[in-house]
Amino acid sequence: MSRKIYVLDTTLRDGEQVPGAKLNLNEKLEIARQLVKLKVDMMEVGFPSSSKGDFEAVKAIGQIAGKDVMVTGLGRAVKSDIDAIYESLRGAANPMIHIVLGSSNVHMEKKFSKSPTQVLEMGVEAVKYAKSLMPQVQYSLEDASRSDFEYMWKTIEAVVKAGATIINVPDTVGFAVPEEFGNLICKINDRLMNLNPNIILSVHCHNDTGLATANTLAAIRNGANKVECTINGIGERAGNTSLEEVVMGIKLHPKYYRGETNINIEEIYKTSRMVSAIMGLDVQVNKAITGENAFAHSSGIHQDGLLKSKEVYEIITPEEVGAPPMEIVLTARSGKHAFSYVTKKLGYNIPEIIEPEVYKSFLTMADQKKEVYDSDVMTLLESYTEIT
Ligand code: KIV
Ligand code: ZN
């Protein structure tokens, strides 16, 4: 049976924490409108107590997002932060308060100088207060992947009883590995099912060792039904889980993950480019799903296979995610088939008799270059009077 996997986008909160990526109100609104088109279920759009600008942005986005997208702001487990979230979102159609509080020993000792019992009480008080203001409350156990399991469970049990509707398990420092993180989620899910099966179990991973997508997918496989991610995987340090990677992973293997998201995947490419342009953060060329080379093929064997049938080397079509059509990139490894495809696409007709010679000249030229541009091919073809 298929489950719904909720997608919370935090590009405008965790993503905006990238140095130099700070946005103004209009820029935030433009991205928020695009996230609505992308059909994210929830978006986290700022930290209202942190500055007037963040407060105003959360407020403005809450008012334009409509009832289909839950909008949230983040705060610590203190009354003033919760009040700021409430004030910024009280006019929103579908608001949520998000509280974060550390649960690992290192956070409790070094950051708060508090005992585990004191921290737990702080979390419960914060949730009770937030719940008195709004029906939807998410509780994040910061640094969960480095926390003691039984302490974490005690906290989860207590905050659920206090009114939390979503429990978020973050791998705050990107420490987790897929199998272990999957087991952790499985254990929490089993107990949560007995405690209250209506609670949404969420994960929030960071990419410090390049495992954010793998950890998030392992969590889904083991019972999580909400993922937190950002467009292009931007975020604090090495970034967050990339929305497009997780969504397409689930889409390709719906039976394995026993679920589906509501994301309008045709809007993925446009959203990726918009976030990159507005935030001034380039997308690496080989980035999965949205990189410039994600649908470009350069090896001769691959080009030949693709020209016979796209299915041979394409598991996702660029059209599916709204990207420009597949590209055959000519290199010295391109075969005759690919060369002929490109020259025809450029509008040239090469007489059969000189084809071998022209192809040979192409290889000589391509050997000198890192990349062969259309203009290089055109210059070569124009040098033959026989070619029309
Ligand atoms: O990385 C983290 O732990 C966070 C929390 C606020 C979910 O960003
Ligand atoms: Zn984070």
Automatic annotation (TrEMBL):
Residue runs in coiled coils: none
Superkingdom of source: Bacteria
GO biological process assignments: L-leucine biosynthetic process
Entry keywords, A to Z: Acyltransferase, Amino-acid biosynthesis, Branched-chain amino acid biosynthesis, Leucine biosynthesis, Manganese, Metal-binding, Transferase
Residues covered by the Pyruvate carboxyltransferase domain: 5-269
EC number(s) reported in the record: 2.3.3.13
Pathway, per record: Amino-acid biosynthesis; L-leucine biosynthesis; L-leucine from 3-methyl-2-oxobutanoate: step 1/4
Part of the whole protein covered: 1 to 388 of 508
Higher taxonomy: Bacteria, Bacillati, Bacillota, Clostridia, Lachnospirales
Protein name as catalogued: 2-isopropylmalate synthase
GO molecular function: 2-isopropylmalate synthase activity; metal ion binding
Family named by the database record: Belongs to the alpha-IPM synthase/homocitrate synthase family. LeuA type 1 subfamily.
